[in-house]
Design a protein that fits this description.
about 350 residues, 16 strands, about 20% strand, disordered N terminus
């Protein structure tokens, strides 16, 4: 990646002035009560369902996103004028107070839900807005009902599900990091490794970290930041790199040393180097339905004998992983992780 720290100083200053002085419908909301209607946030202009970003609302994408029952996602960030996110590695960027992260889940042209993470005075606050059938508005709900959905899988098969929209506590179940009294709610996706990719800004493609730096909403990015592989793009990395990226975004928000599943001893970040921490030849801490009488988390060369694969291929409660966010099997993601397990060398005999 080039240009993050070498853009002319004058360009950066002018961009920041434009951001600071330009009109914006959005304002910081550091505490509740929060708007009951999505439109009242001012994040989008025109017809709401078109998700046309308002002034200084910036769309973005991730190299390897979380799987959510094949839903398409539109992501946006808004940062208050005069401040910027701070570069961190490998963690999620440090966003200033008042920042808003928006993610809308859709099937084809139908909007289902929009989730906001608002960096309020008390910390990151999750809010879930459910779209009406006429697609004119989304309303804040604490405990949303499932939504019956059907759509075409890329193979052409018609799939039907009861799409589950998380409640506030379920949002925190994935987004809470830290243990005990240090537990805090944090974003999961927007790390530099995930954002280090090109994005189409209305016909002009630019690296996202370069763009964010140029318009003044990111500071401190180095000239050559790390990049997470794209799970579905073989040109972006090896099978291992892509499978590990997929496992990280889908599993590591719980399976790391500072999250809910720390006691399992499985730490599924892409940077983990110890094989047993990835489940290779590792006996599970607790047996039961999840293991299905299989002995090891990952059996090198034998995906059918690996608990990891069993849980990814299941939709049975108390077996499927991740526990939240999916009700169908991600066939393509499982195929990639199977390929990685098949390539692993060695055996698990003492």
């Amino acid at each position: 990646m080039r240009g993050v720290v070498v853009a002319p100083a004058l360009t950066a200053v002018l961009s920041l002035l434009i951001l600071s002085c330009g009109p914006s419908q959005v304002r910081s909301r550091l505490e509740g009560p929060y708007p009951k209607k999505l439109s009242d946030w001012g994040l989008f202009t025109g017809r709401l369902a078109e998700l046309k970003p308002a002034e200084r609302v910036v769309p973005y994408d991730l190299n390897t996103p979380l799987f959510s029952d094949y839903a398409q996602k539109n992501r946006f960030v808004w940062i208050p004028a005069g401040v910027a996110a701070q570069y961190l590695d490998p963690d999620v960027l440090q966003f200033p107070a008042g920042s808003i992260l928006s993610k809308t889940f859709s099937y084809d042209a139908r909007r289902i839900e929009t989730r906001l993470l608002v960096n309020a005075r008390s910390g990151w606050t999750p809010l879930v807005y459910v779209w009406n059938k006429s697609q004119t508005e989304a309303t804040l709900e604490q405990v949303p009902d499932p939504v019956a959905m059907e759509w075409r899988h890329p193979s052409g098969e018609l799939l039907k599900i009861d799409y589950t929209i998380p409640n506030t506590n379920q949002c925190k179940g994935c987004h809470d990091q830290g243990l005990g009294e240090s537990k805090t709610t944090l974003p999961i996706g927007p790390s530099a490794r995930q954002l280090n990719r090109d994005f189409d800004y209305g016909g002009t493609r630019e690296n996202q970290l370069v763009h964010w730096t140029r318009i003044g909403i990111l500071r401190g990015a180095p000239a050559a930041p790390p990049r997470l592989a794209m799970w579905d793009d073989p040109s972006s990395g090896s099978v291992e790199a892509r499978a590990r990226a997929y496992i990280e975004i889908n599993c590591a928000h719980c399976h790391n040393r500072q999250a809910a599943a720390n006691s399992t001893g499985l730490y599924l970040t892409a940077a983990e180097t110890e094989g047993t921490r990835l489940g290779v030849c590792k006996v599970p801490v607790a047996a039961g339905n999840g293991s299905g009488d299989l002995r090891f988390g990952v059996m090198p060369g034998k995906p059918d004998e690996s608990i990891l694969i069993r849980r990814m291929e299941s939709v049975e409660p108390k077996v499927l992983m991740p526990e939240l966010g999916r009700s169908v099997v991600h066939r393509e993601g499982v195929a990639l992780v199977r390929q990685w397990v098949n390539l692993l060398q060695g055996d698990c005999t003492p």
